[in-house]
Every structure is written in C-alpha cells, then in structure tokens.
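Attaching the record inline, Q. Sequence:
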Amino acid sequence: MSLPHGFLDELRSRTSLAQVVGRKVMWDARKSNQAKGDMWAPCPFHQEKTASFHVDDRKGFYYCFGCHAKGDAISFVQETENVSFMEAVEILAREAGMPIPARDPQARQKSDRRAQLVEVMEQAVQFYRLQLRTGAGAAARDYLAGRGLGEDALERWEIGLAPPGWENLREHLRRKGVPDDLMLAAGLVRPSSQGREPYDTFRNRIMFPIRDPRGRAIAFGGRALDPGDNAKYLNSPDTELFDKSRVLFNHGPARVAAGKGHSLIVAEGYMDVIALSQAGFEAAVAPLGTAVTETQLQMLWRIAPEPIIALDGDKAGIAAAMRVMDLALPLLEAPNALRFALMPEGMDPDDLIRARGAKAVQEVLDRSIPMVQLLWRRETEGRVFDSPERKAALDKALREKIKQIRDPSIRAHYGQEIKDLRWQLFRSSRAGPAGSAPARKGHGRTPPAAPTPGARSSILVAQGETAETHLREAVILATALATPEVIPEFEAGLEAMTCADPVHARLRDLILRHAAEDPATLVEKIRAEAGPETLENLHALRHVAISPCVRKPGDVDLARMTMAEELAKLEARRGLEAEIAEAAEDLASAADEALTWRLSQAAEARNRALRSQSEDKVEYETGDNGARINRHEREAFDALLRRITYAKPRR
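Structure, as predicted:
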C-alpha cells in the first residue's frame, strides 16, 4: 500500500519518540534532560546496565552506542513489537489520531481477492484436520505419535492429512461453493495436462499449514506417507499468497518468542521447527524447501540481530551453512550477525531431541560459533600450509572474502580476527612437534633444546615505552576532538585502544558515544561530562600542544594522516609487546645455546626488515597499514638482545 506524499513526515512530527520509547525503557534521570528532549536509557535491544541508548526527541532519532541500533519511531515500533513497516505506521497513526488513507480501487480489489484465497485456504486446513481424525488417518496418527507428536502438538500446529485419491479436497470445496479458479489460484489443485478436470495437489500426505506473520494460512507443506514417493516433502506452488523465497515457517510465533528474549533458531525443515518448539525453543523458523535467500535473511535480522543457524550434522548441512555464510557476508551491518550450530553427525534437531532431549540441543546451541570462525574453518580445515605458496593462497582466499563485507567497521574486525587466527596457525606450524626446534639455516644442525639452570633463571625485563604509548594515545584523542569528522573512519581503531590510563579510556568512550551526533557540539558535551580540567590537561601535554593537527583543527586530510600513523604505531607496539611476552614464556624452558641461536635468528630477521623498510606481513584492511619498525622500537629490540645475551651465567 502506497501512502500519500507527506503522510509519514506529518506522522513523525505528531509523534513523540521519547513517549514511544518510554513505554519500553526506564530513563536515566541523571543523564537525561527532558526539557531539551535529550533522553538516555539502557538499550532495549541488548543486555546492558549502563545508559548508552540515546533519544533525541526534537530530531526524532535514536542511537545506541553499544549495539549501534538506530532509527526513528516507526523503526522502533517495528523492532520492539516485531511488526511490519505498515503495521508500525498504523499503530503510530492510531495513537496520533491520524486516519490511514483509503486505498485505491485496484488495491481494494486485490485485497478482496487475497481475502477470498485466504478463506479458501482456511477451509482446506479444516478439511485436512478432519481427515486425520477419521479411520483412514490411523497410519498417519501412528507415524506422528512415533515422532513424539501428541494431541497437543497436533492441535497447536493444526496438522492434517490429505487422503489418497485425486479429487477429495476439490469435491469438498466444490460442495462449499468454491470455484475451480480460486482453488487453482490458491495452489490447492493443479490443472490436468491431458485436458481433464483439475486434481488435488496433495495426496496421501501429512499436512502442515504454512501461515504468514499475521497468522493467515497461505500455503501447505506435505510429508509423504508412502516411502516410495519421489518427493518426501512437497510445498504448495508459488501463488498470489505464497512465495517460498519470502516466507519462513512459524514466522509469527517465532517473532513473538524472540521479542520475549528467546534465541532465534533457523532449522532446515518444519519437522525440526515443530520439535524445537515443543522442546521449549519457541523462536524457531525454517525456510521452505530452498536455501536461505537474501530476503529471508533480512527477515531473520528484523526478528533478531543474531540468529543461530542450526543445521544437520552431515555434509549437506555443512554445505548449507557455507552457502548461508557466503550470502550473508556482503549484507553484514552492525548489529546484524549470524552464529552457526552444527548438530552431531548424522542427526538433525528433531533426531537429537528425541535421542537425548532438549538439554543436548541447548549444549549444541551454546557451542555455536560466529561466522568468522566458520569462514576460517572452511579455508583451513584438512589442509597443510607448509610452503609460502600455500600460505599465500590462504591469504588471498581470505582477503577476497573479507573484501565482500561492505560495512567498514565489521570488515576491519574480521581482518583483525583473521590475523589473530593466522598468527596462531602459523606459530603452531613453525613450532613443529613438541620439544623440537627448526634447524639453523646454513649450518645443518638443530639447536639444543634441553633447558639449563642458567637460562631458566634468567628474567626478561620488558622495556615497554609506557610514556610513548601514553603520548600517542593523547595525540589520537586530541586529534579526534579537533577534527571530529574523521572519527567514523577510525572508529574501529579507537575501540581497539587499550588505554591503560583511565582518563584516556574515559575520553575515548565519550568520543565514541557522542561521535554520531553533531560534531560541532562534541567538545562541549565531553567538557560537560568529563570536566574542563580533563581537556585542559590533555592539551597541556607537549606532544599534543605542538601537534600540527591540533593546531589546525578542521584540517581533515592532516587529521586523517595523523590518526592513521599514530594508530598504526600503537598497533606495531602491541605486536612488539606480544613478541616479547612470547619470548619470555619460551625462556622459561629454553637452553643457553638454543636461546643464543634464537636471538641471532631474531637479529638477522630484524636486519632484513630494516633493509626492506617494511614488515613481511599480510595486509587485510584497506589502506596503508603503517606498521613499520621505528627508531625507538629498533633501540628497544637491540637493548633486549643485549640484556638477554649478557644476563646468561658464564661457564
């Protein structure tokens, strides 16, 4: 239904977003300013204790600085009430006293036609349900009882039976006055290719009504009773009511259950959904005979931000999980995500519930993995990366997949996660079998591995440049305050800053919280919350005071260059500290000779890096990584080598 021009603008102007949201949250009285329409509360979309959900009642927009949910009154009603766009508009229009515009004649005619088809479908539901209770339905009832479906389940899911024969339903509906054209349009009968009368679509099958989110019967799914039937499961054909690529089985009830906090579970078929719901997993849905489509994926995310894809534990189930992942990667946008839970091999959720109960299913769901781990598994499981070419092939495959992610923040986090996983994989492969070490290049011998008391007692004292890190963080924060326009571009880097100084951590959080608002008021809001002395102390630091980007606020190019360089240097520092920590761990069991050999190898690697002026690392993010060894890091590395070498006791 199309709305007249200006209707939505008037609806938004008449609607108080604070009143709409106030029905779902408790406002934080300390942070909120009701007179200005500046309201804060714990976010209704994710579990939190702090008030990071902001409502600007004057502008009519909300934003959560935790899960990044954002929108207006219409989208808020959609998400919290689990309704469609038009249903949300109707709810708000009634509250605002605005009549919904009358539909045009063609729309009314189409609506009337759909209403007729829905009525015919409801008559078919009742016919099939009645057939299940007759003597001819005994075999079907026995089968359902064997699947654990008692009388309450039959009633809840309105399960029925299409009896054998070609015209049982058609004759029943004709006696009710339903013409053949409506039966054909509803997909209940099919035209004969031999010029005969239409015949029933479903025959000798257990019938499951398929309803839309508003509860209207729009199609059927039929499970064959004859083991020799070519099609074990059969769905209604696409009709004016039903498009299987845009429908989820159990959509409406699952939407309500998800709104109450249940995890949204996506299974493969309606028997799995029924079994899950009967076991207490009420927010369960399934596609209808097809792989998950882009439309269905968007529908899932409108129900819940992080559905769990629960698939059969066989090759087909794993392949289906991979198809969903490939479909979802380009569509990812915070907070939308997917998790994957694979059932034990050879079992589906229905099998697992009947064999081991609901607890076993919950354990599988609790072990669900995020999509980035599924991507990693696909590219690495069962493969050996014992050559530079194989490693390069892995890098290329992962890089190509990550490039598909359009959201820059998610893309950056995927890149970092893959880097971490890659480091762990290649570190373990370099380590080799337990107790072994690589042969020294050019000497044909393996360095000793047995620890000695001298090496065991030596202590690696880290020379981390805490002051330098503190100053770099200060420059980054001051740059963000001087030129807020660059904050969205470097949001992921700001979030990754460890900020050992609690004052810096507080400033970083405030910058991220207020970054989506008017940049012109960012400094004022932070000064009001953190106090003027905080900003004064920040700008009093010498490195900050002489920084060109702080002295030239608003210079976007200069600020962008400064942020990229300083964040890259912090990242390089973190990498160096990780290497030092690893060396400290290794020293606890390393031999003197092995230690000397490893240090010499490290020195050679350092010299090669200096000659090439870049690290041998894979760049996953877009742009220059800037992670080069600077003068301070070289001096720290040299000092580290000297301390460890000369700390060894003489023989």
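Residues 270 and 286 are 6 Å apart (CA to CA). The two ends are 89 Å apart (CA to CA).

More tomorrow.
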